[in-house]
Amino acid sequence: MKNSDIRKAVLTALRRNISDAVTWFDGRPGFLDEQDLPAVAVYLSDA
């Protein structure tokens, strides 16, 4: 399974279970603005 497939599966599961309004990031955001909060980011490290 590729990293992008893993992130997609995790994001799908999280979206099903988090009904609050959040900003979603597939990968580590380089910059977060106050408007982006609350935010959920899914990224893999050391993969």
Explain how this protein is built.
- This protein has 47 residues and is an alpha+beta fold.
- The chain has one domain.
- Helices cover 32% and strands 17% of the residues.
- The chain contains one helix and two strands, in the order αββ.
- The chain has one helix spanning 3-17; strands spanning 23-26, 39-42.
- A two-stranded parallel sheet has the order 1-2.
- The longest helix is centred in the N-terminal third of the chain and has 15 residues, at 3-17.
- The termini are close together.
- The mean pLDDT is 93.
Quick recap:
Helices cover 32% and strands 17% of the residues.
Envelope shape: flat
Number of extended strands: 2
Q: Termini, distance in Å?
A: 11 Å
Q: From N to C, what is the helix and strand string?
A: HEE
Q: Share of helix among residues?
A: 25-40%
Structural class comes to: alpha+beta
The gyration radius over C-alpha positions equals 11 Å
Assembly state (oligomeric): single chain
DSSP helix count? 1
Q: What share of the residues does DSSP label as strand, in percent?
A: 15-25%
Query: Major β-sheet, in short?
Result: 2 strands, parallel
Unreliable residue runs: none
- Quick check: average pLDDT? 93
**Number of structural domains:** 1
What spatial order of strands do you see in the largest sheet? 1-2
